[in-house]
Fold this protein.
Amino acid sequence: MSGSMVKNIWLPYTQMKTCNNPVIAEKTKGSVITLQDGTELIDGIASWWTACHGYNHPYIANHVQQQLQKMPHIMFGGMIHEPAISLSTKLAELLPGDLNKVFFTESGSVAVEVAMKMAIQFWLNQNKMAKTKILSFYGGYHGDTMATMAVCDPEEGMHHLFKDVLPHQHIIALPTTKELQQQFSHFLENHHQETAAILIEPLVQGAGGMLFHDQELLLFLRQQADHYNILLIFDEIFTGLGRTGSLFACNQADIVPDIITLSKALSGGTMALATTIAREHIFNGFLSDKESHALMHGPTFMANPLACSCANASLNLFNHYDWKNNVKKIEAQLSEELSICRQLEVVKDVRVKGAIGVVELYKIKNMNLLKKQLLQHKVWIRPFRNIIYLTPSFTITTAELSQLTRAIYEVLIQL
């Protein structure tokens, strides 16, 4: 990569020596990104799955402007504010069961770290000092910070270079078959005394490969967690807030995890915000006369009033239009229009769930070239490893979505 305009920028997930020059975004609207040179791109991934209602929604923007004039930020230590009160109340009402104790952070990785910390300290506060391990799964991705890297897939994920320096956690195969379920139960029988929690991305393992599983697996995990006295954590940073067709993925299994994490679409793609939400019995496990039993964590910008205002507006928007029907239509269109890719020799699999469309290749030989070819079709799609995927906003038009699916097919037939 070259060019003085980016000489001071270090891009994420990017080999800076060999990557393409980044495009320069100038403005956004709906599902369209306008570049500095005037080129308009249809955004197929809603800025890493965040802009669920599309960009620049006037309802969210109005809330931001009003809050900006009143109070852009205030520390959350010993002091709270109305946007956080309102948001925590909304989330408690929307989430199933007694998931009602909301801890605010600014990013998904940190939200998962807090969930892991909560789970481990919950047991430490009860003098169960051995329960310090988190059990997660191959194909999973939970963040890029040190603790979350330790619970991501150690081989297929992007963090394999660190596998020998990260703290050891239990990572095993997702129990998607009867045989694997038996192996899973056997593993817990031998390791439940040291296991604090099971951690999973429900229904879809996202950045680990866009891998799908069904709600029956989640029911199995809930049963196993209860049987072996282990907590169950749902990482819904990707799957939460409508992406899989229900407001939360856990709704489809009709179960209540002990802890759930949310971020990404929480603020409608406007500001950085994340939450770790616990059930009553988890919260009560920290109530004590001992100061050491408190949850000692506190990001400087936690519960930022601007971000909370965005999230309040975004959650309100779910009541302002028929987003569920939109997601159903997106799912049907993705299923129909991506199915033609199955005919191509380079394609290993095509799968769709909710507003998620995945074309899995056997291999992407030249990622930089593939990205350039997609840009030439005036679309913004970011493949990774051997995956080309679409996670559009719920407000994308039929024509815009067709431009995205057509671009994928037309690029792949040239490979």
User: Anything to note?
Assistant: The mean pLDDT is 96. The longest helix spans residues 108-124.
